[in-house]
Every structure is written in structure tokens, then in C-alpha cells.
Design goal:
The chain is built from 11 helices and 9 strands. By secondary structure, the chain is α/β, with parallel strands linked by helices. It has a domain of 210 residues: Class I glutamine amidotransferase (GATase) domain (Rossmann fold, 3-Layer(aba) Sandwich). The protein has a 9-stranded mixed sheet. Helix 4 crosses helix 5. The N terminus is likely disordered.
């Protein structure tokens, strides 16, 4: 058979691997992601882009070699529809500030010693129920941050590692329900109004619509290990109200009745490395909030080691006055 005739035959019936039923099939995760996500509109992209920091705020000599962030966005259970918005926000943040570059990944194979050497931080973007394939991957991540690199977590990043205690401890807390749902508007206080990573809020508490987690007492690392930056403002009736709902009564046995601290953003030192975590980011429109995007950016700079920030655990600090949110009737 001539080569020309063979080519025509293959063109008609398809490649050999198609004939053998070997067409590559999408994984369960890929199929679920495809069904869950919608394409960002040009308007949404414009609004997200305009909400990112417009310049790095760093000296030029620090930008000669931008640092690299591995952005991981896989989900094994609940898939947040805001993941594409967050990925795009990070890409725009990188493009505008030139302080770092981002590489998106959703396969566990990226977590190996050799590959991680190429990055300065790992960012978990709304990941859920991650389960690394082996202990080598776990150790690669722990050694990565212990050796002086950064870990950054957005919202669902604390809903992971249910079979890996050290991983949950690294992030600082583990999901235990969200009485403060995504369709509510909640009050937030600045635990340290003068902290450099709270500069975006200009010393004032605020109101914001997002889904806010509480954390398992058994895994939450507490103020003895974390520098808490932002918390729910539990002095507001609207914030306390969900705790009295019947469906959340089961949690009162774990936390006790009445008001309690519910942290939202924190930092910590881990070996020679640094962690920044924020629970903001469930909703797509959070990535159009300039103040929260600046807060995220400042946290990223800290985790990358570009900037210094006081990470003294909150419990080791003298008492300080928090900046509470304004009353909702006058909140802007």
C-alpha cells in the first residue's frame, strides 16, 4: 500500500489509538471542574483587573528577578466557582506589579523536591480535601517552607489534609462549618490596626459579603502560634445571630455558648518560611474588592520574603485595641 493511500485511510477512520478505544478521557476532577466553572466575561475580567494593585510598591532592585508562585487549584470535594476569578486576579496582580509570576497547576505530581526548587511560594487557591499521593509529596511541601519558602492560602485552603495532621497544622486551621454564609454581609475587625499587612483597610473595621469559616478546635493552631490580623467583629448582633440558629447548635458544644473569636486572616513563621492565610475569597466579587486584593497582595509579598512583617503570635503581645466595624446603619 502506498503512503498516500495509507494517509487517506487513516484520515477517514482516525488514528490507531482511536480505533483501539484508547481516546484519552478526562479525569473525574477535570470533568467536575468543566461542569462547575463558567468562562469569565470581558466585563468581569476588566473589573477584576482594575481592582488589583497597580504597582509593586517595592524598590526596583528587588524586581530584577521576580519570584515565582505555584498556584494549585484542585478540589476533591466542593468546588468553589470563584476559582477562575482568583486565578485571573493573581495573573493580573503579577502582570501589573511584576513582583512575581504565577504558574497554575492542578496535578499532584508538581509536589516533588526537584520541581518545587523552581518556586518561591505555593498558593492553595480554594482547594478542598486535598490528599497527596504519598509521604514524599507531603515531606516535599514541609521541607519547602521549613527551608525558607512561602505558603499562601485563599479561603478553601483551610478545608484540606484531613488525613495529614502536619499539613492542616501548617495552614493554621481546618474547616468546621460556616455559620456566616456567602449570601450574608458580615462585620470584620482589625485585630492589629497598625499591622503592615492591614494597611489596605486604613485602620478601620469594615463590612463585607463573603462566606466565613469557623475552625476545628482540635486543629486550629490558636493565637499561641498565629498572628491574627483580621477577625469577625462579634460585637455586632448580625454576626452573633447565626450562632443561635438551630442548625448550628451542634457547634456550641465545641466552642461553648456566647461570643468567641473567629479569625479570618493570619500569618505565621514555619521553620525559616512564612505563611499567609485569608478566609476571604468564596465569592467571585471578592476579587473586585480593592482593599481585600491589596490585603492579599501584601500577604503574598510577606510570604515571598519581599517584605518583613511582625509575626509574633497574638497571645504573646500586650493587649491592644482592635478597630471594630462601624454600625451597619452607617457602614459604607
Amino acid at each position: 500500500m502506498s503512503k498516500g493511500l495509507l494517509f487517506l485511510l487513516l484520515a477517514a477512520v482516525g488514528p490507531f489509538w482511536v480505533l483501539q478505544g484508547q481516546v484519552p478521557q478526562p479525569t473525574i476532577w477535570q470533568q467536575r471542574a468543566k461542569e462547575r466553572f463558567t468562562r469569565l466575561t470581558s466585563t468581569m475580567k476588566m473589573e477584576i483587573s482594575q481592582s488589583q494593585p497597580q504597582e509593586s510598591g517595592l524598590k526596583k532592585k528587588k524586581l530584577k528577578k521576580p519570584k515565582r508562585i505555584l498556584v494549585f487549584w484542585r478540589c476533591e470535594t466542593f468546588i468553589h466557582t470563584s476559582i477562575p476569578s482568583a486565578n485571573f486576579a493573581l495573573q493580573e496582580m503579577a502582570r501589573k506589579t511584576r513582583a512575581f509570576s504565577v504558574e497554575l497547576a492542578d496535578e499532584y505530581s508538581v509536589f516533588n523536591k526537584k520541581n518545587l526548587k523552581e518556586y518561591d511560594a505555593i498558593l492553595f487557591n480554594n482547594t478542598t480535601s486535598l490528599k497527596f499521593e504519598n509521604e514524599q509529596q507531603q515531606e516535599a511541601v514541609l521541607n519547602f517552607v521549613r527551608g525558607g519558602k512561602g505558603i499562601i492560602g485563599i479561603h478553601g485552603a483551610s478545608d484540606n489534609f484531613y488525613e495529614w495532621e502536619a499539613g492542616a497544622a501548617l495552614v493554621g486551621g481546618q474547616f468546621n462549618g460556616h455559620p456566616w454564609t456567602a449570601n450574608g454581609t458580615w462585620a470584620f475587625k482589625l485585630d492589629d490596626p497598625t499591622h503592615s499587612l492591614n494597611a489596605a483597610f486604613k485602620g478601620k473595621g469594615f463590612w463585607h459579603s463573603d462566606e466565613i469559616y469557623q475552625y476545628k478546635p482540635s486543629s486550629y493552631q490558636g493565637e499561641e502560634n498565629l498572628r491574627v490580623l483580621v477577625s469577625l467583629d462579634m460585637s455586632k448582633e448580625e454576626v452573633m445571630e447565626p450562632l443561635g440558629l438551630e442548625k448550628f447548635e451542634k457547634f456550641n458544644k465545641e466552642y461553648g455558648p456566647g461570643s468567641r473569636e473567629v479569625p479570618v486572616s493570619w500569618i505565621r513563621e514555619f521553620g525559616k518560611g512564612r505563611l499567609f492565610y485569608t478566609n476571604f475569597g468564596h465569592r467571585e466579587d471578592t476579587y473586585k474588592n480593592q482593599a481585600i486584593m491589596r490585603h492579599l497582595y501584601d500577604g503574598i509579598l510577606y510570604a515571598l520574603g519581599y517584605t518583613n512583617a511582625d509575626a509574633t503570635p497574638s497571645a504573646k503581645l500586650p493587649p491592644m485595641a482592635a478597630a471594630l466595624a462601624p454600625e451597619k446603619s452607617v457602614a459604607k
